[in-house]
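Fold these two proteins, one after the other.
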Amino acid sequence: MLAELLQTWPSAFVIKADGKYIPVDLSVNNPDVPVGATADAFEDFLDDFVKKNTASVAYGGYLEHRNLYRRSGIFNDEESAPRDIHIGLDLWAKAGTEIHAALDGKVHSFAYNVGLGNYGPTIILEHDINGIRFYTLYGHLSVKSIEELEIGDTYKAGQVLASLGDASVNGDYAPHLHFQIIKDIEGNFGDYPGVCSATDLDFYRSNCPDPNLLLKLNLMESL
């Protein structure tokens, strides 16, 4: 039911681009992805990709099988299957880029999720549309994005919510927004898995529908 709602909802945005959006393949099938590179080197790779395609923002990654998570113990431990399937949508842009609320909603929770490979500052908004309750997660933000935030704060669709953080605070990634839609938050607070194992994929595919059903970036040149 949520997927159908998102698909028929007018296109939303979380980043205003001054040019086109371009999909980028960061999967295990792309030999050009600089796995193990520093955040700066990875940012250079993405900048070059965007420039070559005369675009402003690179996006993608939903259900993408990636090697990017091998360097972090968060996704690899001895007690469970490796987590290497991305279940949100990434939008790669510069640190400081403004992030907008995709829909009317209120702050459900927020946290500073520290550690290599983690989200860094994170905000989760709660939404209720036509009696359907669900959540949107915004990860890899700047610290100032959550400094004065309070649970219950309300935002309108398109209102500035936060800004992107840099590698020093965002889990040591090239700057980007991890945007995820979640049906059942499962009691989580300020955090929710953004990467899953192949074993758990069926559940997360159902609980976290494709964010591009809402953003519709493949149909848009710019905002």
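Now the second one:
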Amino acid sequence: MAQQTLTRGTVSRRARLPRRLALLMRPELPSLSKEIIDEVRRSIPEYGRPLKGPYVEALRIGVERALTDFVDRIASPLEPHERHHETYRRLGRFEAQEGRTLDTLQAALRIGAQVAWRRIMKVGPRRRVSPEVMAQLADALFAYIDELAALALEGYMDARPDGEAEAHRRRLLELLLRRDGSSRVLCEAAERAGWPIPDEVTAVVAPPGARYVRAALDEDVLADLTATQPFLIVPGKATSERLQNLLRVLPDGQLVVGLTVPLAGVSDSLRWARHALGLVETGVLGDAPVTDCEEHLITLWLLSDQALIDQLAQRHLGGMDGFSPRQRDRLLETLRAWLVTRGTAAEIAKELGVHPQTVRYRMRQVEGVLGDRLTDPEARFAIEAVLRAMRLRDRAAPAPAPGRDDDGPRGQAPIDNRPISDGREMST
């Protein structure tokens, strides 16, 4: 009823507007359309995507038809003007199908009205439009925007008969991630959302701002695809079939799959997946379409607190700072190989691509700095963990410029045949 009243009022007001206004306004429409689109894209992140995207195309069509329709109503106020109504209903359906609220579209309508009114205030006085007519034009413009919003709401509600169920699913997601509700509360929320509670779940995350196709989402997957860090909760394990479907939902790829955990651990799975996504974005992990946390557990553990790694490095390896950066890197590289392989000098030399004598020489230097730490099992374990973490972080760093080896030509160090005092002799 409210909408019918609004529409009748709009028609009666527009009937009093001088038709010559349409002649004054039509030449302004192409540039005004561009100005509105630019302002909306600048002000609303969802519309700031690539120009070929569906969001921007829907915006362009909506703005151009709205301006043309508004001027046509001034030119011919008594003619029916329902031919564009479906355009605005379709915009509302589009928002619903993408899993969003109407807030974004309504904000775009407000911005469009403001930009249009600024143009009217600029052109009207120049064309000697009276203040009375300007006031009527303002009434007509903002009533028209209300009408567009009402039509978009119709389309939105038509496409969201399950709007209440979606609200319950969002509430369920909040309860799962907070882990502060009783099992009874969780069961009730799951029942209202129509979501059978699984024994295990897996979190999946996508990069911020990832494109998504809401309609491709499986019914048993909970998701917040509009979050700053989009994520999904998948019942059970993320099978290959499930992942293929998720790649249809999020076609840009670069998904990260968390660990499969009991329901109470869903926030942990999400945290690990987001941590892994950060490592993908910094280059530590590869940027495959799908990254599985199960394949990178040690990396996730070693890089779970990089500030703590820095503290451990300073505590156990701070004495190495007396060397030049290049010398330090080569000594730590040799120390890491020695800790990992516990092989002979010849074996370590083969792995590093240097002369066995270079290995002995470097290890003498390392032993001179670290001393008893090399024979202390706990210290040795900490050093190995730090070196592994540092090596993982270095994957994201640019390779050093080529230069002269600090150990001498072709990496061969001065002759030193003394054994390494680690409880066994490093033989050739």
